[in-house]
Every structure is written in C-alpha cells, then in structure tokens.
Amino acid sequence: MKTVKCECGHVNPIGTVICEACGRVIPEEEKQKKLVDMRYEGTARRSQVYKQTIIDKIWMFFSSVKVGVILIVITLCVSAIGTIFPQVSTLGLTISAKDYYEDRYGLFGSIYYFLGFHDLYRSWWYLLLVASIGVSLVICSLDRVVPLYKALKNQRVSRHESFLMRQRFFAKQSVPEVMDQLNILKERLTKKGYKVKEDNGNILAEKGRFSRWGPYVNHVGLIIFLIGAMLRSVPGMYINERLWIKEGETLAIPGTDKQYYLENHQFILEVYDKDNVEEVFQEAIEKKGNIIKNFQTNVTLYEADTTLPGEEAKLSKMKDFEIQVNKPLKFDNYALYQSSYKLNEIQTMNFTLIDKSTNKEFGDISINLQNPDEIYPLENGYTVELLSYFPDFIFNDNGEPSTKSPNPNNPAFVFKMITPDRPEGEVSFAAIQQTIEPNGENKYKMAFKSAEMVNYSGLTVRKDLTLWIIALGGIIFMIGVIQGSYWHHRRVWVKRKGSEIYIACHTNKNWFSLQKEMEKILVNTSLPIPIDQTKKEDNELNKG
User: Fold this and answer.
1) Which of 48, 190, 243, 474 can bridge 15 by disulfide, Cβ–Cβ 3.0-4.6 Å?
2) Could you give the CA distance from residue 43 to residue 300 in angstroms, rounded to a whole number?
C-alpha cells in the first residue's frame, strides 16, 4: 500500500493532505500551491487507504457519492415507470394479474407484468435498489464521519506555517506588544461565543463544531426512512387494500387473515337540493347537474371467534358505524375509508330455457355474477351448463370473446343446453341483447328475462405500523437540515513566531459572514485582518 512521508519523518496513509504528526501540509500537496482541502480535515478516508480485498473494493464502490446519486436516479426512474399503469394492489382483481395486464395493455402490459412493475414496491429488485441506497448512505457516512470525528477531536492548537498559509483567510504581520494584542483578541473571541485554547503562545478559537454533523444526521434520518419504507413489504406491517362490498353482504376484511368481517347494511348517497341552497350554488348545480353532498356506508364490524379448520367462522359483533369520507372506521391499527361507490350494478341475471318454435318455457335459472355456478339443473331432465363467463364482454383483436375488466359491466355467457331430445347438448352465446349460435341453428335458446341491481360501496383498508418509523426518519432528517443550515463551524488559528503573528480562519460555509465577524473582532488592534486568498489569486490571474 502506498504511503506519504512528511518532512518530519511521519509516514501517513495515502490520501492524507495534512500530516498527522506535525500538522504540516504534505509536500506533494504543498508543491501544487493550492489552498488546503479541509473537507475531512485533510485526513485519509478508508476508501483511499484499503484497496486490496473484495471487502475493500465493495467499500470503495459504495463510498462513492457518484454511485449513491446514480442509485437514487435509477430508483426514481423505475418509480416513475411504475406509475404508467395502475398497481395491482389498487385494482381488486378477480382474475390473475398476468391475464389482466395482457388483455388490457397488450404486449407492453405483458412486459410490464414480467418485469414486476405491476407490483413494483413489493418486487425483490426494487427493494434491493432501496437497500443499496441505504448501504451507500451508511458506507458514505462511515467513510467520512469517522476520520472527521477523529481529526476534530484531536485537532492541534499549534499548526505549521504551511497549514496556516494555505487557509482561505490568512494574514501575517509583525506586531508590537504582542501579548497585549493577543489578550484583547482572546477576550473578543470569547464574547463572540468561541471556545479558546492555548498552547505555547498559539491560539485555537472554535465554535459551531456540531454543525459539521448536520449532513450525517441527514443520512441517519434517510436510513431510518428507508428502513420504514422497506418494512412495508413485511407481512402485517403495511396494508393498503380495496374492499368492494354490496348492500346486504358480509365479507372478511382484506389483510386481517379473516379475523374481522364487515356487513354492509346500506349505502347512502346524498346530493345538494338546488331549492335549499344559496343562489350562487344553484347556478353551479344547474351547470354541473347533481353535486354530491355525502356518501356513506352503514356497516357492522364483527370479530371472528377461533374455530377449527373447515368450520364456519362464528362472528361476534364489535360495533355499528357510519363510514363517511374523512370519517373512517378505526379498530386494532386498521382503518376503513369510504373511497368510492357503484350504483345500480348488475347482481343477478335471470334466463329462461325455451323452445324457439313453440316459445314453451322449461324453467328459469338465476346467475350470481360474482360467483356463478357451473351447472343449473331444471326439471324433467333439462340442464343448463355455464361453459364460459365474460363479466365485461368484448371481442379481442383475434375476434375471440374476452373481458376487459373483472367487473360485470356487460356480462355475456356461453351456455350448453342439455335436453331429453338433445342429450349431446346445444351451445349458445348469450348477452343482454345478443344471442349467437356458433354450431348452427339450435332448437332451444336461453332467453334473457330480468336483472337484479345492487349498490356497491368501495372501501380502502389501511394498516400502517411503519408510519412512526418514517415520521421519525423525517424528523431526524429535518434536524440535520437545520443543524447544518443555520449554524457554521468556524475556527481561528493564531501562531506567534517572535514578534510576527500568523492568523488564519476557516468555516464550512458563509465565508462572507466570517470575514465581517473577523473585521469586527480585530478592529482597533494592530493584529492583521485575514484576507480572502481566493480573491488574491483571481486578481493575480486577471493581471497576468
């Protein structure tokens, strides 16, 4: 491993800018005649020192700020792609997600599903990206904060002339009555809030050191935030499900492992009456039509008693509740929000088997569109089989019957009618206003008779045990932002060499304010006021 030897004889690890022993600027750095790099107090970072083993190379990779930024950009890009199509968790599908994305979005939908974008925030590779950002934050922080902490904790009061001369603010001058002037300086620095240390007549004044840890406090907050985000993929920690429940129905609440059930007694929709509102609202109602005033679901919450496998759950009533917008039903870390509704949805369709030539009826069947049966037996040897069911019927690009959604918006059926005189059965395609006989003319047909309608209430089921972790991460992040933004780490070095005084200053930000502060401190003294050497270099370049 390469090392850097100082003129004092101390061997420093590669990457060191300021000698660990004497505080002198390393000769190689001094030859460049640039201001000293004070970001990490001139100390070497681990990623610069150890480069041999595989662990060292992994450390080097993740300690790079560029790598961290690239990981963040990639994560943001794939997150944006995940918003192109709806996430599967928001759809409430009754068919497979693969079939839904293929039928709805074609080839691009198939690719979208195959790559895991349909359930992006739970996919293993997305969680790996988030974890990589967390690892990068941890290693970046440790790689920098450890040497910085050691250097600041053990910083020297007496510094070599090369160190002082390479600070951005520097001045030197012969000063009569040096001790009196230094006493005045120490008194004024103390009044400004500086902690003053002395060593062999040299002075180090420092304040606001804690602000240096602001960026690393930010990193801690971000890491906690990412941990909270990743915990959402752990079962039971985060639930965001949709529950469509019709009037009169009792269903298990998603995400509760059938521990809790909900009964929908009634869905209520209220609109503003234009005769009972102010004139300005009457105009709005006339333009827009009915404006919703309130929609709510009157429910009863049940808890299932412990039962043996295969037994029907015994429900114990917990409470009645009226779920409204912004008035959720909360229980046991769960919350049920009123989010949507569907009015007059087809619940049941009734058909009659008839003889086409005589219109004689042989019995009725009633099809529950949410859970249709496969076989509907009638009297006297007549039977109807349901071969296929298309809740939202369309013809696809190949001219074949398909469904564009799992909702019964336009139901269609393929029936097989088995009769005593047609034991092999006849096949018929039937919709509300359409009948097709694919195998030729049939003797019998399924005639649409009636439909029963029902109102559906759309509820969002939420449980979030990670919210406090995410909130804690956000609070810590903001503390770091405030800590690093409103306070500054300022230092003043004074070196006495006979009657000659060296004064150098450094701050991690807001150099103009430091300059003004030093002018006020040194006013009416014979001590030199440090000048900004970057302006001096710029002036020399302009003259050249």
Assistant:
1) 48
2) 67
